[in-house]
Design a protein that fits this description.
The chain is about 75% helix and about 5% strand. The protein has one domain. Helix 1 crosses helix 4, helix 2 packs antiparallel against helix 3 and helix 3 crosses helix 4. By secondary structure, the protein is mainly alpha-helical. The chain has a two-stranded antiparallel ribbon. The N and C termini lie far apart (about 35 Å).
């Protein structure tokens, strides 16, 4: 079992436990595929892309980077919803996308997931 598979399993168990204890989750749950929810994430991704380009062209690169991050992230959330998952955790979303890539279910560049992983690590060390 790959690292992505293990992380997805952990995320699913985390969400199950939180749902049982609190009625809410901050992990990953298996749900029905939801194309309408996926479309909403793509609209949000496009909005974030527009903002990122605007910030970048206006010399606000410090604001462009997070907008680009969320553009990619909302694309990943759209893919997640298409495949019947609901995620409320960035690490879980990235692990799910890695798992879908490994399973050959999506043709998605690992460059994006690797970049988001590096971004998370760099943000942790900036404090």
């Amino acid at each position: 079992m790959s690292q992505a598979d293990n992380k997805v399993r952990w995320c699913l168990k985390k969400a199950d436990k939180e749902l049982a204890e609190k009625g809410l989750h901050r992990g990953l749950i298996k749900a029905e595929p939801d194309i309408e929810a996926a479309k909403k994430h793509l609209i949000k991704a496009e909005h974030n892309l527009d903002a990122a380009v605007f910030f970048d062209e206006s010399s606000f690169s410090d604001w462009a980077a997070p907008a680009f991050f969320y553009c990619i992230y909302h694309c990943m959330l759209a893919i997640s919803r298409k495949f019947g998952y609901e995620s409320r955790n960035q690490e879980c979303t990235i692990a799910l996308i890695d798992m879908l890539i490994e399973e050959g279910k999506i043709d998605f560049s690992r460059e994006f997931t690797d970049t988001l992983k590096i971004t998370d690590i760099e943000e942790l060390h900036q404090d």
